[in-house]
Amino acid sequence: MEPEPEGVPVPEEPHVQEEPHVPEAAAEAQPDPEPDDGRFKVRLANFEGPFDLLLQLISKHKLDVTEVALSKVTDEFMAHIRAMGPDWDLDQTTEFLVVAATLLDLKAARLLPTAEVEDEADLALLEARDLLFARLLQYRAYKQIADIFTARLDEEARRYPRTVGLEPHHAELLPEVVISIGPEGFARLAVKAMLPKPKPQVYVDHIHAPLVSVREQAGVVVARLKEHGEASFRVLIEELGPDDTLTVVARFLALLELYREKAVALEQEEALGDLMVRWTGGDGEAEPTVTDEFDRAPEPEEEKKP
Amino acid sequence: MSAVSTQNSAEDSSGSPVGDLGSAVAGLDLKPALEAVLMVVDEPATEEHLAKILQRPRRAVADALRELADEYTVQGRGFELRLVAGGWRYYTRPAYAPAVEGFVLDGQHARLTQAALETLAVVAYRQPVSRSRVSAVRGVNCDGVMRTLLQRGLVEEAGAEPETGAILYRTTNYFLERMGLRGLDELPELAPFLPEADAIEGETLEGVPSFDPDAPDAPGYEDADD
Amino acid sequence: MSAVSTQNSAEDSSGSPVGDLGSAVAGLDLKPALEAVLMVVDEPATEEHLAKILQRPRRAVADALRELADEYTVQGRGFELRLVAGGWRYYTRPAYAPAVEGFVLDGQHARLTQAALETLAVVAYRQPVSRSRVSAVRGVNCDGVMRTLLQRGLVEEAGAEPETGAILYRTTNYFLERMGLRGLDELPELAPFLPEADAIEGETLEGVPSFDPDAPDAPGYEDADD
C-alpha cells in the first residue's frame, strides 16, 4: 500500500526569511521547482477568503507565517479590503473584517511602547495572534494539500477507465433487472438526482436576542422622572448590567420620544458630559404618548403596555 | 465567491492536453497508442478512423493491429483483438467465457447500481433527453451508465435533438414492466417530493456563485429584505 | 451483431452455459480468466468479488492481478491495470492520453476551482465534517462550494452531528477514483505540511517575553530567540 511517488510534488512556498537561522515551518518547502513568476499578481485578484489573502501578502514579502512583519501586511490587507469597495456581500466582508480587526489590534499593540506582558488585554492580544497564526498555518497546510489534489486530479484525468461493458452474447445471459425501490422511491431518487442541493440552513440564533420594548422602557423612565423630577441619563440606566446594551439603547430612544412629546427637557453641559433629563410633563395622570415606532416587529405581535 | 468563474483561465496555457494535441499524437508509439484507444471504444473502430486519429498511414496501423492481435494470442491473454464487421475491437477470449459468464450470473447484476438508478430516474422524468443533459443534471459523466441501461433494455434511443444532433433517449416498455407500471403517466408526480417547485433544473444551480440562505428562491426572502 | 453472438456456441457443447459453469471456471488459468472478466467490468472489481467468481483464494487472485499489472508495464502496453477505490480496473496509460482524447470527445472532466479543491481537501482529512467546520478552516463560507462537490459526486452526506444536528460530509468512492487512490489511507500525510507541534509552541513561547508581533526588528528579539 505504498503511496505512488509520482504526482505528489511538494508545492512551492516562498520561504526566504529575514532571520536565516530560524528553522521551522518552511523547512519542508523546496526551492521553487518550477517557474512561478508573476503568479502572485495574477492570483491576488483571486484570493479565496481572508486567510488566502493574508498568506499571499505574507509570501509576497517573502516572510514566513511564523515571522511576519505585521504592520506592512496589515496595511496591505486593509488596502485590499478598501479596494474591493462595495462589491462584497455581507458574509464575505465580515470574514475579512474579523481578520483585519485582529491584524489591526496586533499592529496597534506594536505601536505602543513595548512593555512587560502584565494586563489581560495584552494576553488577549497574544492569544488572538497565536490563534490567528495557528489558523493560518492550518489553512496553509490544506492549501498545499489542495495543490497536491490538483496535481493528482490532472494526472488521473489522463487515464481513461474501460467502461465498455458486456459483449452482446454475454449480455443475453443477464438476469432480469429488479427495481425494488417502487415508484415513490423512484420519484424521490429523481428529485435527489435533479436537485442535489443540501437543505439551506439559516442560522437565526443571533436574531433571537431578547426583545426590549421602547414603550416599556419609556414607562420606566417616566415613572422615575415623575418621582425625582430630574436625573442624569447615567442614573436612569445605572441598574442595568454591562451586557444589557439593548435596554440602554431602548431607554435612550424612549428619551428621544419623550423629548419629541415635550415631556422632558435635555441638557448637556459639555461634550461627553452627563446628560441631564428633567421632567416637564406635569403631574397629571395622563402619560405622554410614546409610539411603537421602535418596537414594530416583523410579525404583528401585540405589545402589551403595563 | 469571486474565484469560481476564473477556474481554468490560468491553467489553460500550460496544462491543457488539447492545445498541442496534433503533434503530441504524432510522437506516440503506434502500438500502445492503438491499445489505449481501443481500450475505451465500444464500437469496432475502422483502420481508416484509427489512422486518421493517430496520424499514421493506414498500412502502418493495419500492420500494428495484426501484430498486437498476434501478441495477445501468443501470450495467452484473456482478451483478444479482432476485426469484426470492418472494425477492430477488444473481445474476451472465448476460452474464458465461463469466467465472464460467472461474473454475469453472479447475482449482483439483477440490481442496478445507484448511479444507474439515478440516471434512469432522470431519463424517465426528462425524456426524451440527451446524454450530455443527463450528465449536466447529475454532475458526472453518464456515458458508461447509459450504456448499461441500453444494454439492459431499460432505455432506448429516440431520435436526435434537432439543433445539436445529439442522440435522445427514452425509457422502454421493459422499464415500465420492471417498475410495475402500465404507462409513463403512472410515474408519481415529482412535485410532492420537491422542496421548491422552481429549482429543478440542475444546471441553473451550477452557476449560482455562492450559496446564499437569503437567495431569491429561499422561503421568506422578501420579508427578510425589509 | 449476429456474428458475435454465435461465437461461443461451439464451446458450449452442453447447451446451457449455467450447468457446469462451476467446474469450467475452476479449470481456467487464473491470469487470463482475470483479464477476461476485467475486460467487461464497468466499475472497479474487488479482489473478493473476483476470487468468488473465479473460485480461487483471494491471495492467489491478488498476486495474479499484481503480476498482470507488472507485465503490462514491462511490455509498455497502452493500458494499465490499477487498484483504485478498492477495486481493479483497466485504464489507458496516461502517456497515451492525447490519442484517447482524439476519440473521447466529452471525457474531459471539468476542473475544480481553488475553492472547491480546498474544501475537498478539508473534507478528505476531517471527515465526517460539517460545513461550518470547513468554513472555519478556510475562513470563508463554503456552502456554495460544498453544493458543487455534492453535485459532482465527490462528497456525500454522512449523517448529522449529534449535538448540533449539522449535516456531516465525507468523500465518496468516486473521489477516490478521480484521485486514483486505493483508499483514504493513501492520502498524503497532513502532518508534514503543518509545523511540528513543538515548533508552534516554541514560537508561541518565544513571542511572550517581548510581546511583539513583529518580532524580527524589535528590540529584545534576539534574546527571545535563544
TrEMBL record, chain A:
Residues 1-37, 281-306 are annotated as: Disordered. InterPro entries: ScpA (IPR003768). It comes from Streptomyces lasiicapitis. Residues 12-22, 293-306 have a biased composition (Basic and acidic residues). This is Segregation and condensation protein A. The lineage of its organism: Bacteria, Bacillati, Actinomycetota, Actinomycetes, Kitasatosporales. Keywords: Chromosome partition. PANTHER family: SEGREGATION AND CONDENSATION PROTEIN A.
TrEMBL record, chains B, C:
Keywords: Cell cycle, Cell division, Chromosome partition, Cytoplasm. Pfam families: SMC_ScpB (PF04079). This is Segregation and condensation protein B. It comes from Streptomyces lasiicapitis. Residues 202-226 are annotated as: Disordered. InterPro entries: ScpB_csome_segregation, WH-like_DNA-bd_sf, WH_DNA-bd_sf.
